[in-house]
Amino acid sequence: MQPTYGNTKCLANYIVISAIPFLFFIFILLGYFQIIPLKAPFHSVAIIFFIFFIFLLFIKHNANYSICKIRSSYDELKEHLDTKLKTNSLTIESRTKSILDVDNFLNHYYRDARNDNFASVASSVFPMLGILGTFIAIAFSMPNFSVTDTQSLDHEISMLLSGVGSAFYASIYGILLSLIWTYFEKRGLSKVNAYFSSIKNNFIYSVWSKEELLIYKYTQYDLKENKFLAGLRETFSLDFIQTLNTQHIVSYEKIMNETNSSFSQVSTNLSRVSNELSDTLSKMNIGNTAMSAQNHIDRALIEFTEATKSFEKTTKQHSAQMNNSLNRTFDKIDSEIGQIVIKLADFATHVSLESQEVQESISKYHEMVAKQVKDR
């Protein structure tokens, strides 16, 4: 926020600073009009007026004039400072103050009131302008030394000395302005320091001091260190280690019990599967016996068929009654043989199903054993 200053109220300061340079210029001007016995040529008056004009432009950057502008804008300064204090507020232990650097704020505010670059070079600019004006005045008053007689030469020398004397007015004026500027600059700076000190005293209870912030900083360090040490004590305490060991022992016992239970279950499953295998092998032996009987029956059937064919050849000449009787006998034999074949087929199916169940039991057993080994 760029501050606004009331320049009208500071007109008195402007007049006070420019009063002596103005009176000096009037004194030279009276000499030019020969009101007072002081020889001041026109070029000297013009040079002094130019230096005085530059001085008037520099006055608004003088510290004595700037302090007046700052004082005239105190309400705006206070409002701006209050805003900055609230923006940079900090609460410590239920107390709220600002951490704003008031010195930095006031210095920045003061730099906005004037141009420090102009103020720093002003004390050396005016003497340099005075010396420059002196050489210009000497150049203007330089006579023509082309005369031949002694009387004319004396006259020219008298004119040169007179011009040189008046030319030094510019140097005197420049040195005078430098002294006046330095005096009011120092006086203004002392006023600025006193004014800013009074402002800081007005807001001293609204700003945390460096000592308070330093104490708070070390207090926080102590609190963090105490918390850290307490955490270490709690972490490496004997009770904690004992509790940790107890928990490890309990966990180890639990794992061992679960492992023993798992091995017991595996043993039970192995015993059950062994019994099932024994039963299956017994059934398979029975099935083998049945298969042998079936083979014997098949051989008997083959032999019986051959005998039947031989018997047919020898009994073709029997009577029709004998044929009917034999047909009934053969039908009965065929029926019994068919039933035997059906029973053998059912038994073979039963044996096949038993074999499939045995294979499935063996597969399940392998899967269960692999799963238990993976879980361990």
What does this structure look like?
With 376 residues, this protein is mainly α. The chain folds into two domains: 8-208, no CATH class; 253-375. It is 83% helix and 2% strand. It contains ten helices and two strands; from the N terminus they run ααααββαααααα. The chain has helices spanning 11-32, 42-58, 63-72, 74-87, 102-113, 116-141, 150-202, 210-235, 238-314, 320-375; strands at 89-92, 95-98. It has a two-stranded antiparallel ribbon. The radius of gyration is 66 Å and the shape is rod-shaped. The model has no long low-confidence stretch (mean pLDDT 76).
What is the ordering of alpha helices and beta strands?
HHHHEEHHHHHH
Q: Can you give the helix content as a percent range?
A: over 70%
Number of strands: 2
How are the strands of the biggest sheet laid out side by side?
Answer: 1-2
Q: Summarize the main sheet.
A: 2 strands, antiparallel
How far apart are the first and last residues' alpha carbons, in Å?
Answer: 75 Å
pLDDT < 50 stretches = none
Number of domains: 2
Radius of gyration, rounded? 66 Å
Category from helices, strands and their pairing: mainly alpha
Number of helices: 10
Structural shape: rod-shaped
Strand share of the residues?
A: under 5%
Question: Which whole number gives the mean pLDDT?
Answer: 76
